[in-house]
């Protein structure tokens, strides 16, 4: 428990992992406080999974240091392993075995005797609403059920630190909400959670601190409030009736919102961020309403209007000046070396 | 999967936050399992897989039967006068050959299995590292035993009469299973080293065919050219086949047993560490 006195579950300094020419992780510094959900946000190929794998002792760092509860992930790997659990991007359970068999297998590997492993497995299946599917092979489970058995397998022994690598990628909204509920229940009992995600709203829902990672580097880090202040709390999207009014509307919006206005490829559409800068994420709706009123006063007809959270693309644009798509070539290269990644992306 | 998805969405019970919390509150962790216990647990996993996909036993049942029938009747008349004469000589040898050939499936299954997410979980557990691989091979040892029993049964039906009796036969099978367990570390190495299942299969064939055929399984090496005799007489398969043959015939071939066990130890000592190195790097 030595690490808990310092209050940090994870501490990394200049963490590097290279695959051939690609620097998949390029000097990552993280400080994750215990007892919280820490979000690592970034697009495919940003280095999220590679970072998690190094922290979970699955990959050796090529440079820098990483400590989990004060234990070095290379030199004290076994110490680290006994305190963490990993739920990978792909199902980290044996698909040929049934739900019960998976949990008993892992329970036995964690040192429980047969009876205790079976008992704990039963209780977990019950808590996760999987009792009926307990005797079915995991390969016949739906996406939502797989996620559940996967997380159940990760908390057979309550871990001090749980890695959730993109836990909701590919899930329908309902299953996604259920996974979120599970994460909240886990963290409520004192487990630290490191969550990687491609979705800003997921990080927003669960995490108290967020690191945005791009091309192997942390490009922004802070509380949700701090991050939003730098990006803007939301975006206003609007569609005009008349494309000819667009330059005029752009000007009105710029003044009303005090923000950059972007022209969309669609000739009648405009996008602007609201609630950024000094507003610190507050009053986005009021600002947007004011802007709408200004547009009406100027005689500009708005057909369609929406106020939403900034998408990951917008966050990236704001933080890096390039969008997530420009990553594509690097992606493919990185995933060639990481064979798991390739399969997963093909599936997604 | 398409059949289960629609029904599941209405059946799937909600997650119970209270019972989950009650479970999570238990923070005690049992002591980590011993190396043996972890290996046996992985062996249990291998047996569960056989239970769920019994078709995978095809290679340890149909293939050995085919081997015995084929070679007994193909060579029997020409080499020993009659198939029933020949099988007295052939059966222990063909048993060795078939089981050693079957070991190569280990590499293929390691190669396909290692790509799955569950291996990341295994590797993040605080257990004795080689237990995953040892468990594999323990499961395979069961398959080798099944193959041996199947072949012996066919042999007995065709007229094979081992003078060593039950004890001799069991000793022969035990030696064969021990050797095959050790030999399989070559395949776990290739399974982890090569990128695709096909390349594993290809390399395995390249190793296994010359190794098993260039031995004393089918004929006495005396008729072979000198350079070939030099190879055949020193091949681990020849030592093993001689040992098994004599054990089943009721003798105790100390030297051949020692050679077989020596080779086994060598395989484990050389390919075990290489396998684990690759496994840790994966």
UniProtKB/TrEMBL annotation, chain A:
Q: How does it sit in the membrane?
A: Peripheral membrane protein
The record's annotation in Pfam families points to:
ABC_tran
Query: Mind telling me which PANTHER family this protein's record contains?
Result: ABC TRANSPORTER ATP-BINDING PROTEIN (PTHR42711), DOXORUBICIN RESISTANCE ATP-BINDING PROTEIN DRRA (PTHR42711:SF19)
Compositionally skewed regions (Basic and acidic residues) per UniProt: 336-348
Task: Give the record's keywords alphabetically.
Answer: Antibiotic resistance, ATP-binding, Cell membrane, Membrane, Nucleotide-binding, Translocase, Transport
Question: Which residues lie within the region annotated Disordered?
Answer: 320-348
Location(s) in or outside the cell: Cell membrane
The ABC transporter domain sits at: 10-240
Which organism encodes this protein?
Streptomyces spongiae
What's the superkingdom here? Bacteria
> One GO molecular function term?
ABC-type xenobiotic transporter activity
Q: Which family does it belong to?
A: Belongs to the ABC transporter superfamily. Drug exporter-1 (DrugE1) (TC 3.A.1.105) family.
Q: What Gene3D superfamilies would the database entry show?
A: P-loop containing nucleotide triphosphate hydrolases
What EC number(s) does this enzyme carry? 7.6.2.2
Q: Name one GO cellular component term.
A: plasma membrane
Name the SUPFAM superfamilies on file: P-loop containing nucleoside triphosphate hydrolases (SSF52540)
What broad class describes the main subcellular location of this protein? membrane
Tell me what this protein is called: ABC-type xenobiotic transporter
UniProtKB/TrEMBL annotation, chain B:
What is the similarity comment for this entry? Belongs to the ABC-2 integral membrane protein family.
Gene Ontology MF terms in the entry: ABC-type transporter activity
Q: Which GO terms describe its cellular component?
A: ATP-binding cassette (ABC) transporter complex
Q: Where are the transmembrane segments?
A: 57-80, 86-108, 141-160, 166-187, 199-219, 257-279
PROSITE patterns xref list: ABC_TM2 (PS51012)
User: Which BP terms from GO are recorded?
Assistant: response to antibiotic
Which segments constitute the ABC transmembrane type-2 domain? Answer: 55-282
Protein origin, superkingdom: Bacteria
Q: What is the recorded name of this protein? A: Transport permease protein
Return any one Pfam family short name.
ABC2_membrane
Q: Where in the cell is it found?
A: Cell membrane
Stored PANTHER family: DOXORUBICIN RESISTANCE ABC TRANSPORTER PERMEASE PROTEIN DRRB (PTHR43077:SF8), TRANSPORT PERMEASE YVFS-RELATED (PTHR43077)
* Record membrane topology: Multi-pass membrane protein
The species this protein belongs to is Streptomyces spongiae
Q: Which UniProt keywords apply?
A: Antibiotic resistance, Cell membrane, Membrane, Transmembrane, Transmembrane helix, Transport
